[in-house]
Design brief:
Structural class: alpha/beta
Distance between the termini: 65 Å
Number of strands: 8
Largest sheet: 6 strands, parallel
Oligomer: single chain
């Protein structure tokens, strides 16, 4: 007689879908995003707003993992909205959603301001659906994401290189690509704790205090460290 253990009968549950909230003042854009993203099996659109004010009124009642936010809205630009959302939701009981900016503009100044307030991604509106999904997945996993056209403009002007070790340069470059510490550890054959120690060392060498500032620096400058 064959016996079956509890472990053998355990059925692995599918991962929960990423819960999205859409913010754009053009109904046609929201319709297009809903059509493109709503059909994805790992994504669930749980709400939408046509203005910054409407988003602020709804976001407290809608539990979402990530917000896709239009930069150029009329009543409130998306960067200011992102800053307000991230400031208001800092409690463990209601953590702030990750934010990916959507824009028609690849202006580096907009990108830098968005990352400075805490946005984790910046995607152009005319990007293919696969790129928007890649941004959502990367940011939801703890990384960052920039549309390739945006990255090219950001990295066009190189800054002087602070002195980093080869390993620190590798890790900074990976951070600039939007990789999390776990991804970097796997790719480089290191422990997550070692990667975190390198991140602390990089911050000391660069005179950077917070994690958000480190990510911002990596996004703006990391590619030059991968060229040495």
């Amino acid at each position: 007689m064959t016996t079956t253990t509890a472990a053998e009968t355990t059925v692995q549950q599918p991962p929960k879908p990423i819960r999205l909230f859409l913010v754009d003042d053009h109904p046609l854009v929201r319709d297009g995003l809903r059509a493109r993203l709503g059909a994805m099996p790992n994504l669930e659109i749980v709400g939408e707003a046509g203005s910054g004010a409407e988003a602020l009124a709804l976001i407290d009642t809608v539990r979402c993992d990530l917000m896709l936010v239009d930069v150029g809205m009329k009543d409130m630009n998306g960067i200011d909205l992102a800053a307000l959302v991230l400031q208001r939701h800092q409690q463990p009981s209601h953590p702030a959603p990750h934010i990916v900016m959507l824009s028609m503009y690849d202006n580096p100044e907009y990108v830098q301001k968005a990352m400075q307030v805490g946005a984790r991604g910046y995607v152009l509106k005319d990007a293919p659906a696969a790129e928007i999904v890649a941004a959502i997945e990367a940011v939801s996993a703890g990384g960052t994401f920039l549309s390739p056209a945006v990255s090219k403009k950001l990295f066009r002007n190189q800054a002087p290189r602070p002195l980093l070790t080869p390993r620190e340069s590798e890790i900074l470059t990976a951070l600039g690509r939007g990789e999390s510490s776990k991804q970097i550890a796997r790719d480089l054959g290191l422990s997550v704790r070692t990667v975190e120690a390198h991140r602390q060392s990089i911050k000391r060498r660069l005179g950077i205090e917070g994690q958000a500032e480190l990510i911002k620096y990596a996004v703006e400058h990391a590619r030059e460290f991968g060229q040495g």
